[in-house]
Write a structure and sequence with these properties.
The complex is a heterodimer of chains A (259) and B (273).
Chain A (H helix, E strand, L loop, with lengths): L1 H28 L9 H10 L1 H34 L2 H16 L2 H12 L3 H25 L3 H9 L4 H39 L8 H10 L3 H30 L10
Chain B lengths: L4 E12 L2 E11 L4 E6 L5 H8 L7 E8 L2 E2 L1 H5 L2 H10 L3 E4 L11 H11 L4 H14 L15 H13 L5 E5 L7 H18 L2 E5 L3 H7 L2 E6 L4 E2 L3 E2 L12 H15 L2 H8 L1
Helix pairs in contact in B: 4-5, 4-6, 5-6, 8-9
The chains are: A mainly alpha (259), B alpha/beta (273).
Bound molecules: adenosine-5'-triphosphate (ATP) and magnesium ion.
């Protein structure tokens, strides 16, 4: 508990201090509300529209979560298949890395063409940005398994599947967790980008749409609120993944041992 | 063990990517025997052990396994690769690596049970066998500990328990105690000697310590130079009890090994010709 407080308190204090400075700066300099609303103004606006904002947050969280899960499963599966074959690795991995260079904003419209307006396009957009870090990190981990341990498994007649399941995958866990943590943040970014292009208005409009609509209506306070909420979605997803990673590594990995 | 296997390495050479690492190595150990290999760092000792274990195939020469004191007639004719693979497949050979190499995500018991698990032995059976080995190594209290919680000496004892749990007919040890302090090392040497006597397995030990080689083995082979060559084996005929390490014959044998290890390279070529 003491440890948690020691880690959590400094950033919380810093954040509060920044908000106070912001609030005071707005009070002193009085910029137009559409340029820079103060934290309290944002809070009030969010409170007024809380129902819609919560709905939007939920809808963004669902597509980020789904996109993340798809990215995790696809990334780990592809990395596992690639790790078993030098041939496939040479042929496919460079293409995968190239694919990662394509800007998401540029392909998002394609996703709308293929998946239509709505959830499936935003989920696809989240999955596409999040898959590569999972793939790359998992593959890295699988390939850097201690060769002596591979020999050990060979001596005792383990087949490929057993070697993967009982040796390569566990020894890649730290890398996989790293990949998943990066993917968690990216999934939210991918979702919001997807929502910009494919978002649907109405009752269950996601945060990306709230940002767009509020911007058009010069409701900068709501823009800020939506941005803060999407950051919160990313934070929660990242936190959940980190916690699960810590759970799976805590018994043996150096990064989690008590110093 | 009645069916320990002996090894005869005949004129084995090995190349890694065109570079000669081992040049015409000749080594022999009879079933149930104890052979120690000492020599230059980078002289190909680990490579020789991996060749014997069938993990890599030699560029030339052959490695023959013998059962029950006589040369196995079948493997006499079979190409070495085959006989090594066959021996490994029957779980006849176990390795104990430099630095132990435990799986850090498994506790002590699961690590020791691993070889049996990989061979499809049921959970109950393999845990019983693993606990038995752990008791022999005085590790019963630590079966739930993770490798990161063990001292270096304990880790090596776990690695040895893992190597012995399959009741191997040939045990290959690659500098098992190289990273340990002298006191722990002496204690583990003694444990290894007793285990070797109890199980009757054939043992090949690679070590940097002349004392360790002479006090444990029946024969010591020195490997010198790059590419590594084997010098004729030195037969160790002193009694194997704790007190003998200071006896005159023991010291004299250490001296002989030391001479071979420090011999000029051109002399080595002379002797091995
Ligand atoms: N897989 C490999 N590929 C290429 N070269 C190798 C490989 N393994 C070993 N070598 C080379 O073979 C030589 C002998 O290595 P080896 O590990 O057998 O030496 P060693 O006698 O066990 O040394 P040490 O006492 O330091 O453990 C070294 O020069 C090493 O660089
Ligand atoms: Mg070595």
């Amino acid at each position: 508990m003491k440890n948690i407080l020691r880690v959590a308190l400094p950033p919380i204090f810093t954040a509060i201090a920044l908000l106070v400075v912001w609030e005071i700066a707005v009070m002193v300099f009085k910029p137009a509300a559409y340029l820079l609303p103060s934290p309290l103004m944002i809070l009030r606006a969010a409170n007024v529209d809380s129902r819609q904002l919560l709905q939007a947050t939920l809808s963004t969280a669902i597509s980020a979560g789904l996109g993340f899960i798809i990215a995790a499963v696809v990334g780990m599966t592809c990395a596992s298949v690639l790790s078993q074959s030098k041939f496939l690795q040479r042929g496919l991995y460079p293409l995968a890395s190239l694919f990662q260079m394509v800007p998401l904003v540029a392909i998002a419209p394609l996703l709308v063409i293929w998946f239509g307006y709505g959830l499936s396009a935003t989920v696809a957009s989240a999955a596409i940005v999040a898959v590569f870090p999972v793939l790359a990190n998992t593959l890295d981990g699988l390939r850097s398994t201690d060769p002596a341990l591979r020999e050990l498994f060979h001596i005792y007649n383990a087949n490929r599947f057993t070697r993967w399941w009982k040796l390569e995958l566990p020894s890649a866990t730290p890398n996989i967790v790293t990949g998943l943590r990066i993917a968690a943040g990216l999934a939210v970014i991918g979702t919001v980008v997807g929502e910009f292009v494919s978002g649907y208005a109405g009752e269950d409009a996601p945060l990306g749409m709230v940002v767009l609509a509020s911007m058009r209506g010069a409701r900068t306070d709501l823009v800020f609120a939506a941005v803060a909420l999407s950051a919160a979605v990313g934070f929660v997803l990242f936190g959940a993944v980190s916690f699960l990673g810590w759970l799976s590594l805590r018994k043996w990995h150096a990064s989690t041992l008590i110093h | 063990m009645r069916d320990a296997i002996g090894v005869h390495v005949r004129g084995v050479s090995h190349k890694f990517a065109g570079a000669n690492v081992i040049d015409h190595a000749d080594v022999q150990v009879k079933p149930g025997g104890f052979l120690a290999i000492v020599g230059d760092s980078g002289g190909g000792k680990t490579t020789l052990l991996r060749l014997i274990g069938g993990l890599i195939a030699p560029s030339s020469g052959e490695i023959v396994f013998m059962a029950g004191g006589e040369s196995d007639s079948q493997s006499d004719h079979a190409p070495r690769g085959q006989s090594a693979v066959a021996a490994a497949q029957a779980n006849a050979i176990s390795f104990c690596f430099q630095e132990g190499r435990l799986l850090p995500w498994r506790n002590v018991l699961q690590n020791v049970a691993l070889p049996l698990e990989l061979n499809g032995v049921s959970a109950q059976e393999r845990h019983t066998a693993a606990r038995e080995m752990l008791a022999k190594m005085q590790l019963s209290d630590s079966e739930h500990k993770m490798p990161a919680q063990l001292s270096g000496g304990m880790r090596m004892r776990v690695a040895m328990a893992r190597a012995l749990v399959t009741r191997p007919k040939l045990l290959l040890l690659d500098e098992p105690f190289g990273a340990l302090d002298e006191v722990t090392r002496l204690a583990l040497d003694e444990e290894l000697r007793q285990l070797w006597q109890q199980t009757g397995t054939t043992a090949i030990l690679v070590t940097h310590s002349i004392q360790e080689a002479v006090s444990l083995a029946q024969q010591v082979v020195v490997m010198r130079g790059k590419p590594g060559r084997t010098l004729p084996a030195i037969v160790i005929d002193v009694p194997k009890d704790a007190a003998h390490r200071t006896s005159m014959p023991f010291v004299a044998l250490c001296e002989r090994v030391y001479q071979q290890m420090t011999m000029q390279t051109n002399e080595v070529v002379e002797v091995t010709r």
